Amino acid sequence: MIEQFKKIFNGLQRAHGCTHVEKKNADGTKLKGKSFVKREPVTDMLWENHLKGIEPSLGIIPINEDNKCSWGCIDIDSYASFNHKQLLNKIREMSLPLVTCRSKSGGAHVFLFTTVPVDAEILRNKLLSISAVLGYGNSEVFPKQIKLNSKEDTGNFLNLPYFNSQKTTRYAFLENGEAATIDGFFGTYERNKLTPEQLENLNIKRKQSDFIDGPPCIETLAAEKIGEGKRDNTLFHYAVYAKKKWPGEWKNKLILFNQNYMIPPLDDASVERIKLQHEKKEWGYKCKDEPMCSYCDKFLCKTRPFGIGGEITFPLLSDLQKILLDTPYYRLNVDGERIQFDNVAPLQDQRLFQRAALEQINRVLPTISKKEWNKLIQDLMDNREEIDPPAGSSKIDQLQDHLEEFCTNRSSTSATKEDITRGSVFQADKKHYFIFSKFYHGFLIKKKWDEKPQFTHQMLKEHFKCAEDRMVIGKKKVSVIVASSLERIETPYIPKELRPKDPY
Q: How many whole angstroms separate alpha carbon 317 and alpha carbon 288?
């Protein structure tokens, strides 16, 4: 069972996700579950613990080291009110080879599986089109990237189904809508997995409509009819299309669209208001607004005569990751393409962000207002994923390596107290004695160490429990550092708390 489960959800091997399942307080309120990425291989024990229900539950990153995937997922983030039956009916009507699972939140994870790994870009684009036609175009799609930008990039993970497989709430649905056992899931997987050729030729059926030359969202909405709460935005959006296709008679087309596709039609005053807005100004499509964003298929839209075409539209920025180095660096997705910043500056300055996008992914991005930009970045920061840095990359890790090298190479059983004034290390009673200035100026600087002396001194005290003492050497008392252990002590280093009076 474990081997079959592993084979189905094979992904990135050098890292994985962990999630502690959400629980409830005594008053019934929901606690937020904690999720994090571990830069460690996915072991058999992790797979086994997941299926047994031993926390943390396992998350797998679908994009592998070769930027290929054998599975992808539409993550419909909803809670108990989500209508799984309605979703299953839609999928069945469209004859889509999808496997739907109930997610941890009560929403749905809609999987697309392939027999062998395929290019992540191909799988992601196909899922984006499927999510649009299903009406969940604003949902997250995994893989979230089409390419990992380095060997340190961990991508984004998805929590797997069948946590605590015998009593799970994260089950797949059978064709009849009933919950599937894990064996039932294996059968559903076998019936729906696609070869690369089948994936390429997968036909995503859309309902017949009169607007196949325009944005797919209009085509789908018109076929389903547009009810209350969606009418104003849709009619405004349609007006952009009508002006492109029928520049001389778009006003009459607006009236006909309202009469034929709105349930019930908007009143005359509302239609006139929208007419007036478009008479005064040339508007672009409102792709980010509901209900259009739920039915958005950007890639298909670009191919249509009256779609977004050559318009430079603002991309979807998503999945900000903050890598917790001493000076953090950042990664995020731009329409699924990965870009990275060495510091926070491009998130503060839109122009620097545009320059980075042009350099890294060859994209020219439009400028949005400062207010819009600040809100966008704040939303990304509020939902950021924090990732521990690669082993050995933090300043503390580097200092540990330098300290070990210095004490090992410059100490010997024959060294005396007098030798430490010449830059050596005196060793006695399992302790290392040295002069800080000899360590800093005579050793660290040559290693291109760039922290200031007082910060370095404080790091030795806080993270390696180094003490300062006075040692009599000859006729003088000399200030020395005493290192009882060369191992790192896990305590947070916060330079801003350093006081100027700290000695060095």
A: 12
Q: What is the DSSP letter of 251?
A: H
Looking at residue 308, the DSSP 8-state letter turns out to be: S
* Dihedral pair phi/psi, residue 456, rounded to 5°: -65, -45
Burial, 101: exposed, middle or buried (Cβ in 10 Å; 0-12, 13-18, 19+)? buried
State the DSSP code for 24.
Answer: B
Query: Taking Cα atoms as reference points, which of 318, 320, 311 lies closest to residue 366?
Result: 311
- The DSSP secondary structure of 155-209, one letter per residue, reads ---EE-S-TTGGG-SS-BBPTTSPBPPHHHHHHHHHHH-B-HHHHHT--------
User: Token pair for residue 198?
Assistant: 């089948």
Residues 49-73 have pLDDT tens digits of 999 999 999 999 999 999 999 999 9
Gap between the Cα atoms of 301 and 295, Å rounded: 11
CA distance linking residue 91 with residue 106, whole number of Å: 18
Distance CA(256)–CA(267), nearest Å, equals 13
Say if residues 367 and 350 touch (Cβ distance below 8 Å): yes
Residue 28 neighbours by CB under 8 Å, 6+ apart: none
Q: What average pLDDT does range 156-160 have in this prediction?
A: 94
Distances (CA, A) of 247 to 156, 191, 217, 279: 45, 49, 21, 11
Buried b (16+ CB within 10 A) or exposed e, 319-347: bbbbbeeeebbbbbbbbbbbbbbeeeebb
In the three-class reduction of DSSP (H, G, I as helix; E, B as strand; rest coil), residue 110 is classed as strand
Give tens-digit pLDDT for 355-393: 999 999 999 999 999 999 999 999 999 988 888 776 666
Q: Rounded to an integer, what distance in angstroms lies between the CA atom of residue 382 and that of residue 371? A: 16
Residue bearing the bigger pLDDT, 413 or 22: 413
Report the DSSP pairing between strands 317-323 and 385-387: parallel
Supply 170's token pair: 């994260």
User: What is the C-alpha separation between 236 and 290, in angstroms, rounded?
Assistant: 12
Give the span between the Cα atoms of 452 and 440, in whole angstroms. Answer: 9
Rounded Cα distance between 503 and 466, Å, is: 13
H-run or E-run covering 141: strand 140-142
* Residue 204 token pair: 């995503």
- Record the tokens describing residue 70, joined without a space: 């054998």
Q: Between 268-280 and 250-261, two packed helices, what is the crossing angle to 10 degrees?
A: 150
Torsion of CA 405, 406, 408, 409, to 10 degrees: 100
